[in-house]
Amino acid sequence: MSIDNSTVKKVAKLARIEINEEEETTLIAELNNILGWVDELKQVNTDNVEPMLSVFNESMQMREDKAESNFDNNQILNNSPESNSGFFVVPKVVE
Amino acid sequence: MNDFENLSISSALEGLTNKKFTCLELTEYFIQRIENNKDLNCFITSTFDKAVEMAKVSDQKIKENKTRLLEGIPIGMKDLFCTNGVRTTAGSKILENFVPFYESTVSNNLWNSGAIMLGKTNMDEFAMGSANTTSFFGNVKNPLGSKVNKELVPGGSSGGSASAVSSGLCLGSTGSDTGGSIRQPASFCGLVGLKPTYGRCSRFGMIAFASSLDQAGPITKTVEDSALMLQAMVSFDKRDSTSSRQSIPDFSDFKKLSIKGKRIGIPKEYMIDGLNSDIKKVWDSGISWFKSEGAEILEISLPHTKSALPTYYIIAPAEASANLARYDGIRYGFRHSADDLNDLYQKTRGLGFGKEVKRRLMIGTYVLSAGYYDAYYLKALKVRKLISQDFEDSFQKCDLILTPTTPNVAFPIGEKQTNPIEMYLNDVLTVPASLAGLPAISVPSGFNSEKLPIGLQLIGKPFDEISILAAGALIEESRGFK
Asked: Which CATH number covers residue B15?
């Protein structure tokens, strides 16, 4: 398999990362290199092998479905690049 | 003036309890050391006022004979652990001005044990790197480079933490290990680095890279210090869904454990092409030390070792691409303004993330995208199972596994920058234990011809940190240097 510039553009869009032309060229080479390398996994026989999502094998505990918050709005908004009247500010999304 | 240069955590605790010096004296000494060694670039943020304040509290506790486990021990905190009111960057521009309003469980546990925070240590951006060259705040230097008149990398991603302990800027530090980020820099800097079993340390408040692999652990000068710090760091935490409820032992019990009669597995697959010959020699010496202590040495096979690194480079980026989706320029961190929301996301992330992070997010997004999920991500999850199974099978026959930590010693800053895979190969011997969630420790065991340190790695059964600590202590006794 090989990655071309339209794939890199598509993946960058999915990842919400703006890349310039120079980065695009470098990424095509690097991603092909890395994906070519991980391709060797295809030779490993994994018939009847269960996928392993986590090594954690203790049962997870249920908790009450209750909202809990020890923080107030101001603390949270303090880190935001732009806020107004207790809200995060984003560019206009509805016309 | 006391001689603080050769202090370990355990000897400092002794000196403090016997009132040979005060915690404030000790803290001020390290503050001065950090000020005098800024060129190493170990710290992103220093917290000297806080340190002095904490030192005074510790001195009071000592006076009242109410000492806690790490009372008055000045440490460095990897800048991956959120610290309440203290900037936490993960080495990234995108979090350059992020100030958490909560404390990570691991750091909180350390402060509650009396440890003192000198500052937040430098690291590869979002812990993605093996040389501490991807930090937005500049690379860290390995203090041992001066021995060979070269600027050497400290390893990564916990490079600032390792360099700080190695150069005597603090007595111990925290690291996080996803594929080797504690063990590899510890090995490069001549230190002990311990990655506990997955689930031992809470991940709450630890900035996420790859959640199924991330695990916190200590970087220290001695095995005994590692046991002490680990004791303070671990806890069950309901705020981390994969925090273990396994009972927590007294890790200092490693001192009572004899290695005699233990079965030490030597995996033949770790004898990789490109393993440095000096490292091979040290590995052989290590085997002989265990033999003369009465341990049984047996060759074992971990047949899927070769597949571990490619598996890791699918799983870790995939998890990272999900975890790092939160950096959107809206709620915290860097924002690049734009008129359109999508534009804002893309510009913020394009400018806020460094090269290596972007590379991995691209890989992660690709292997999870429609049409490639089965071929890459699902395949890697299955191979992960096989790798884990290899260890399970081997631990039927042996109690511990002894390997080198890295295929090479610390290398000059600027090397291995052209081909990412060359950099990734640093972790080829540490990644398998990470994928299997096993505890592993790197212990300084010898030197190459240039006198640069070489570490050996001990891998243990799940939750058996005590055995790897005991075996690590045996290396310390046998290696013939302090």
From this structure: 3.90.1300.10
Q: Which of residues 29-88 of B touch A (CB under 8 A)?
A: none
Beta-carbon separation of B385 and A50 below 8 A: yes
- Active-site option among B135, B163, B176, B181: B181
8 Å CB contact of B304 and A78: no
Count of domains forming chain A: 1
Per the domain annotation, does A56 fall within a domain? no
Of B331, B345, B376, the CB nearest to A16: B345
**Contact at 8 Å (CB) between B151 and B412?**
yes
Sequence-separated contacts (24+) of B322-325 with Cβ below 8 Å: B322/B364, B322/B368, B323/B208, B323/B209, B323/B210, B323/B211, B324/B126, B324/B353, B324/B357, B324/B361, B325/A16
DSSP state of B137: T
**Which of the residues B46, B58, B78, B158 is marked catalytic?**
B78
Task: Please tell me if residue B403 touches chain A, with a CB cutoff of 8 Å.
Answer: no
- pLDDT per residue, tens digit, chain B (482 aa), is 468 999 999 999 999 999 999 999 999 999 999 999 999 999 999 999 999 999 999 999 999 999 999 999 999 999 999 999 999 999 999 999 999 999 999 999 999 999 999 999 999 999 999 999 999 999 999 999 999 999 999 999 999 999 999 999 999 999 999 999 999 999 999 999 999 999 999 999 999 999 999 999 999 999 999 999 999 999 999 999 999 999 999 999 999 999 999 999 999 999 999 899 999 999 999 999 999 999 999 999 999 999 999 999 999 999 999 999 999 999 999 999 999 999 999 999 999 999 999 999 999 999 999 899 999 999 999 999 999 999 999 999 999 999 999 999 999 999 998 888 889 999 999 999 999 999 999 999 999 999 999 999 999 999 999 999 999 999 999 999 98
Domain-located, residue B21 = yes
Q: Which helix (H) or strand (E) holds B223?
A: helix B223-233
Decide if B198 touches A, using CB distance below 8 A: yes
Alpha carbon of A60: minimum distance to chain B alpha carbons (Å): 6
CATH of residue A38's domain is 1.10.20
Strand partners, B77: B120
Total structural domains within chain B: 1
Instruction: Report chain A residues whose CB lies below 8 A from the CB of B334.
Output: 81
Give the closest residue to B282 by CA, choosing from B424, B408, B142: B408
Q: Which domain holds residue B14?
A: 9-254
Separation CA B301–CA B278 (nearest Å)? 23
B78 as an active site residue: the answer is yes
Cβ distance B382 to A50 less than 8 Å, yes or no, reads yes
| Interface membership of B373 toward A (CB under 8 Å) | no
Q: Is B307 a catalytic residue?
A: no
